[in-house]
Amino acid sequence: KAGVTQTPRYLIKTRGQQVTLSCSPISGHRSVSWYQQTPGQGLQFLFEYFSETQRNKGNFPGRFSGRQFSNSRSEMNVSTLELGDSALYLCASSLATSDDTDTQYFGPGTRLTVL
Amino acid sequence: KQEVTQIPAALSVPEGENLVLNCSFTDSAIYNLQWFRQDPGKGLTSLLLIQSSQREQTSGRLNASLDKSSGRSTLYIAASQPGDSATYLCAVIGGSQGNLIFGKGTKLSVKP
Fold first, then answer.
1. Per-10-residue mean pLDDT for chain A, 115 residues long?
2. Among residues B79, B51, B78, which one has the least CA distance to residue B65?
3. Between the CA atoms of A27, B49, B4 and A63, what dihedral angle is there, to the nearest 10 degrees?
4. Chain A residues with a Cβ under 8 Å from any Cβ in chain B
5. Which chain A residue lies closest to B34 (C-alpha atoms)?
6. Residue B106: pLDDT band by 50, 70, 90 thresholds?
7. What's the pLDDT band for B97 if we cut at 50, 70, 90?
8. Nearest to A20 by CA among A33, A38, A8, A31
């Protein structure tokens, strides 16, 4: 079974631009979560989507948004990029079985550099 | 607010040594706890998941324990190998619809 895939793997943008990252979950997984990883803050939760609805949201500004499609694929958008948005963006998927054995599986990440 | 701490931040050991990585969390009301491994510039690989009702989980040379009442978990790695070199991350989740809250990780280096 294919793992979580993320595209693109690397991105270089300039301040003020916007960017869209894509995540394809493991087949059959209904939940997709996004995390930002930086050397200073570590891994921080952005948001989670389940059945095309945002179910949970972290403490990030409104410039960060996302959506999920009917096939569970998800996109994340960052508008008006700032230097501090440079990070590894990780996507994770899970079956969302609502029991405590539900494991999150992570993709390889998208490395975003803002110049 | 749940906070997860991992000590030490970095650890270097000779090959073959047994070692313990520590993780502590401030709110004992967790749903489960996961240990992940991250290689440089890569995504996370799930190693072990411990349900809130469990005390430990084992996979090969890895053993993770959980003590909810004291807010602590340990990851024991037996007979370490250079291929074990990576950053190990501990994360807790507060409910069935909660998100993972991560520690900053322990960077492990196993010297041949």
1. 92 98 95 94 94 92 96 97 97 81 89 98
2. B51
3. 0
4. 4, 6, 33, 35, 42-45, 48, 50, 55-56, 58, 88, 90, 92, 98-109, 111
5. A103
6. very high
7. low
8. A8
Please indicate whether, in this complex, the C-beta atoms of A4 and B100 are within 8 angstroms of each other.
Answer: no
Residue B49: closest CA among A104, A48, A36, A8? A104
Q: Among B44, B96, B100, whose Cβ lies nearest the Cβ of A98?
A: B96
Of A33, A103, A108, the CB nearest to B49: A103
Contacts of B111 (CB under 8 A, 6+ apart): B12, B13, B14, B15, B82
Task: Give the pLDDT band (50/70/90) at residue B96.
Answer: low
Given a cut of 70, whether residue B52 has pLDDT beyond it is yes
- The answer to whether A100 contacts B52, with C-beta atoms less than 8 Å apart, is yes
Identify which of A98, A101, A106 has the shortest CB distance to residue B44.
A106
Q: Do B42 and A105 make contact, defined as CB atoms within 8 angstroms?
A: no
Q: Between the CA of residue B87 and those of A16, B8, B43, B104, what are the distances in Å?
A: 33, 11, 11, 9
